[in-house]
Amino acid sequence: MDISKLTVKNYLYEGQFKIWGEDSGILVRVEDGTPDNDLTREKVLAVMEKITAVLNEKRSVIEQALIDDDMVATAEDWASSGEEDYDEGDEDHEDDDNRKECYILEDGSKVYLPITEEDFKASLTSSGGVLAYVNENFEYKDFDFFINCEPDYFACHSILVSVDADGSVKVGGLAG
To answer: Of 85, 114, 135, 146, most Cβ neighbours within 10 A?
Structure first.
């Protein structure tokens, strides 16, 4: 990406980058009064590229942090609040112990419980984007990564993950 592709409004720069294989928005907020010129844009672009690299390198670490924070169980709790459904032809076996629990989510997708860790990881998308605040030296203390799921277990909410400048990952729960 080159600096001409960045958009800016009220000291907030936006660019599109490939995170986890999909186009994702990165927002970088600079200090008030920072001039919008080529030098600023180059520094912001460098921050965005660094964030992209960190997220792509840390995917497995982020996924494990979500598992360790019990987000699979949280997804099951949210999914089970959907409309209960039955496997086709299974309507007469409501009390059958072998029947899979199935729920229809707000986005119309069906989810079977329990959700496996593999299915949960496969559902994660970077479509929620990234938000970072930089100081006058264009350094960030941390940035926020908003992870969505497909199917949408969390009804249009994102999982908030903060990544420190040193690469430490912290799950912040749900946002939205």
So the answer is: 146
Report the candidate in 144, 143, 137, 147 with the shortest Cα–Cα distance to residue 165: 143
Structure tokens at 104: 């229809």
Predicted confidence (pLDDT) per residue in 46-96, tens digit: 999 999 999 999 999 999 999 999 999 999 999 999 999 876 555 554 555
pTM: 0.91
What is the torsion angle, in degrees rounded to the nearest 10, for the CA atoms of residue 48, residue 53, residue 56 and residue 60? -120
The pLDDT tens digits for 116-131 are 999 999 999 999 999 9
Interval 97-114: pLDDT, tens:
556 799 999 999 999 999
Tell how far CA 40 is from the center of its chain.
27
Name residue 101's amino acid. E
CA distances from 27 to 4, 43, 79, 149 (A): 15, 13, 30, 20
Q: Which residues contact 55 (CB under 8 A, 6 or more apart)?
A: 19, 20, 62, 126, 130, 145, 163
